[in-house]
Design goal:
DNA Polymerase III, Chain A, domain 2; alpha+beta; 3 domains
């Protein structure tokens, strides 16, 4: 195998594939990246952890076709430091891959490509979704996924596609994030998928790259083969297993009606909450919010200290003098505020029925498109 490639392109592609590789792979071959060249002048790079597989196809000056496995993270580290001159790869007689450039060279050991796991096949004829829509849906929901591996059915996000919209839902049992975007689905196909957390993270990176490279008109094709999901964007394929099991009845979690709502300044609230959180309990970051006509108060109180801040808020119940209290994990609310900041919304809305029921945060003009529901904290 022998080829010449632009080092910037190589670095970018390896940067996309390397996160797929487990840092402490229990199966040695899973720490490798498969490199394949063909007579058509293409270089294929593939990484997998058996659950998620990423494949990239790039143009290169191929001098000899071949296929080998190389230590993935080591190759990426080398690519990050290469000078900006064409890089020459060649498999020598000792079974090493030589990486030559103007000022020097590296040699890395290789493994026969036959030891690499079988790569899934791309299924044609999936549903095409605008890349910017899917990326935004992931950004608005993926942070709410559980990190507990034992909670299998909520370790992935529910992805639904029908004739009119794309819906993504994520939960960890304490909060639920819902995003829905209108969609023109000319195929009429419907998808009901449970996408693992790692696959969503890789998918967001892939979408970022595709949008930077090809613009906001980029699309991604999504298909389902039953036990494997396939996402195709440009010259990249991402494969992931489709999680099985019953996802929670998320529609029951979304409040049907809200007795009280308040519109709040996003930036003021974010700054106040950050300050009050400094004296919150490190176990659950408990902060209490008291809401009354015209204002709200944020409070935290521990044995080490306490904090309190007031700010203006537009409360919707005219004439009511009641003070309503909500106690919540401030880190969960800060995750939502990051979404608000990226959306550029100067305000957000809070809706609730009482201090013991789930409450909801949403963008004032997008409630049907983005809803974030939290369970209040109990006890003192």
């Amino acid at each position: 195998m022998e080829f010449i490639i632009n080092p910037s392109l190589l670095k970018e592609e390896l940067g996309l594939l390397t996160p797929v590789i487990e840092r402490k792979a229990t199966i040695p071959v899973l720490s490798k990246i498969k490199m394949e060249t063909n007579a058509s002048g293409e270089l294929a790079l593939t990484a997998t952890d058996l659950d998620v597989t990423m494949r990239s196809l790039q143009v290169a000056d191929v001098l000899q076709s071949g296929s080998i496995l190389v230590e993935g993270r080591k190759l990426y580290d080398i690519s990050r430091e290469l000078p900006n001159d064409p890089v020459h790869f060649q498999l020598n007689n000792n079974g090493q891959i030589e990486i030559r450039y103007k000022k020097g060279r590296h040699k890395l050991g290789t493994v026969e490509s036959s030891q690499f796991p079988e790569v899934p096949m791309n299924k044609q004829g999936g549903v095409c979704v605008p890349a910017v829509i899917l990326r935004e849906a992931i950004r608005r929901t993926a942070f709410a996924l559980t990190t507990e591996q034992s909670r299998f059915t909520i370790s992935g996000a529910k992805m639904l596609v029908d004739e009119n919209c794309l819906t993504l839902v994520a939960t960890d049992g304490h909060r639920l994030s819902f995003a829905r975007f209108p969609l023109v689905n000319s195929t009429g196909q419907k998808l009901d998928l449970l996408v693992p957390k790692k696959a969503l993270s890789q998918l967001e990176d892939l979408l970022d790259r595709e949008i930077r490279r090809c613009g906001v008109e980029s699309v991604i094709e999504i298909s389902d083969t039953g036990n494997q999901l396939c996402f195709v964007a440009g010259n990249h394929c991402l494969f992931s297993r489709n999680l099985t099991g019953a996802f929670p009845n998320w529609e029951m979690v979304l409040p049907k009606n809200l007795a009280y709502t308040a519109e709040i300044s996003s930036d003021d609230f974010r700054r106040s909450l950050a300050r009050v959180t400094l004296t919150a309990d490190d176990r659950n970051y408990s902060v209490t919010m008291e809401i009354e006509p015209g204002k709200l108060t944020l409070k935290s109180n521990t044995a080490e200290g306490e904090a309190q801040e007031e700010m203006l808020a537009a409360f919707n119940v005219a004439g009511s003098q009641d003070v309503h209290s909500l106690r919540f994990n401030s880190r969960y609310v800060q995750d939502f505020l990051q979404v608000v900041s990226k959306a550029g919304s100067p305000t957000f809305s809070l809706g609730f029925n009482d201090g013991n029921s789930p409450f909801e945060l949403f963008l004032p003009i997008e409630r049907e498109g983005y809803r974030y529901v939290l369970m209040p904290l109990r006890g003192e």
